[in-house]
Amino acid sequence: MPQNAMVVAVLCSVLSTLVLGSPVLGPDPIRCAPCTPEKLSQCPAVAPGCAEVLREPGCGCCLACALSSGELCGIYTAPCGSGLRCTPRAGDPRPLHSLTRGQAVCTEIPEPEPTSHLYLSGHNKPYDPRAAADAQESMKAKLIAIRKKLVEQGPCHIELQRALEKIARSQQKLGDKLTRFYLPNCDKHGLYKPKQCESSLDGQRGRCWCVNSWNGKKLLGSADVATDTECP
User: Where does the IGFBP N-terminal domain start and stop, copy by copy (predicted)?
Assistant: First the structure.
C-alpha cells in the first residue's frame, strides 16, 4: 500500500503525544522520495476540461483532476478539490481500510463555529482559561483511552501501537530517508488479518504476504501475493 502517506501523518500527530514508555523500534525518519525527472516523465496527462488540477495526495509527484464533493476518494485516488477533504463515512468501523481502498468520500471542510469569548488585547484568538483546561484534560483522557484500548485488545494492536510510536518519533529527527515501512492490519479483536501489506511513500504499491492470524508470522512456504489477492 503506498498507502497511509496521508493517514500516517494524521495518526502521528495524535500518537506522538501518546508515547509513554513503550518499546521503540528505531529512529528512522520518514520522508517522501524526491520527484525525479524520470518519475515526472511517467505522469499521465490530465484530462482536458478539468475544473481544478492538483498534485496527487501524500507523496505523489503527478498532477491530477481534483475530485468533487461526494465523490469516492482514498490514498490511491486523485485529490479532493479545494475546500474538501477525503474522510471516511460517519460511523465507518474501518476508516483506515476505507482510505486505502478508495471508499472514503470528499466532504466539505466545516467552517469554524463563531465564538462569543472576549479577545485579549494584541491577540487574534479568544482566551477562555476554563475551556482551555477542559479541552486539555479531555484530549489527555482520550489519548490514554486509545492507548489502553490498543494494548488490551490483542497482539496486532500492540504491534500497531509500537509501529506508530516509531513513526511519530522518527518524524522529529533528521537522518536517512525511509520510504517503506510496515503497519499491521488488525481485525476488530486485535488479531492479525490474514493478508498483511507493506506501506510505501515512494509512489509504488508495497509487497503483501499471508500470515497466521494469531501471531502475525508469515505462513511457512508461502510467497508474496498481489495486493488484490485474498489470503486463506
Answer: 28-109
Interacting residues of 222 by C-beta distance below 8 A, sequence separation 6+: 209, 210
Per-residue pLDDT of the chain (232 residues; tens, 9 = 90+): 444 444 444 444 434 433 333 333 444 445 677 888 888 888 888 888 898 998 877 677 888 899 999 999 987 788 899 999 888 988 888 888 888 888 999 999 887 766 554 444 444 556 567 777 777 788 778 777 776 665 566 889 888 888 888 877 766 555 545 667 888 998 888 899 999 998 877 667 778 999 999 999 999 877 888 877 888 8
Considering the four listed CATH numbers 4.10.40.20, 3.30.70.3270, 3.50.50.60, 3.30.1360.40, the one that applies to the domain covering 37-108 is 4.10.40.20
In one-letter notation, the amino acid at residue 189 is H
**What is the residue whose three cell numbers read 490498543?**
150
The one-character DSSP state at 91 is T
Phi, psi of 69 (to 5 degrees): -60, 130
Closest by CA to 52, choosing from 70, 62, 63, 66, is 66
Distance separating alpha carbons of residues 193 and 215, to the nearest angstrom: 10
